[in-house]
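Final report, Chapter 2: Outcomes

The project's central promise was a pipeline that accepts a single protein chain and returns its three-dimensional structure in a standardized token representation, suitable for archiving and comparison. That pipeline is now operational. To close this chapter, we reproduce one record exactly as it appears in the project archive, with the input sequence first and the structure output second.
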Amino acid sequence: MTDEKPLPTPEAGDRATDAEMARRTRRSFVTGGIAALAGLGAWEFIRTSHREGQTPWPLRQALETNEELSRGYFRPARLAPQFPVDAAEPVKVNGDIGIDDEDFDATKWSLTVDGLSGDDDSATLSIAEIRALPRVDMVTEFKCIEGWSKKVRWAGARFADFARKYAPATDSRDSYVALETPDRAYYVGIDLPSMMHPQTLLCYEMNGQPLEVDHGAPLRLVIPIKYGIKNLKRVGRIAYTASRPPDYWAERGYDYYSGF
């Protein structure tokens, strides 16, 4: 005789396996239930929180935290990728808020500028005065917040050159620039450092041709370090301001900064 224990029978092994599976299933069910309840509670908290614009407060706080990180990461020397001229592609017309006036006459267009330094804090400019600034030609990627992108050839004046000639009364890092369409139906607010980025243009040509009406003629904003919702078409007014101005899509729940 020996002291060896008999091997478990197959039936005993099956029972042990079944017991372990049942134990794990119960644990998974309890864990999953707790996670589901926690998720439901978090969603109910977000849903019932007070809103800032159309965005629940917790989500708006998350967006503002992302903005602080992005602004801390921002450097004027950090450029969006540029491409050769033959990489330029046609761009679809995407959105007509503020430019849907069928009777619009580009020859009668003018640009109002407010918040200037000096005794006269406003000016009215023609497209000829914008074209008189140093011309910049570049091919960058236009990124839509909907998820598509196109490489586009733009030509116009750097906003930094514009701001040197038409200087703001306030130019701190915490200052902003407000831009509006002539009818004020569409408007954006952009931090001054982003506007002064060397790739930010007041653009009057697209893919080697004068800007078309559907793309914002005679003058639009091009800012490759921001998503398309900030690239306002048909600029009718520019205002320098020390406080954060209204922004069309931020009021509807989108990220105010909209940079990448």
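Archive annotation: The CA atoms of residues 119 and 260 lie 37 Å apart.
This record, like all others produced under the grant, will remain available to the consortium after the project formally closes.
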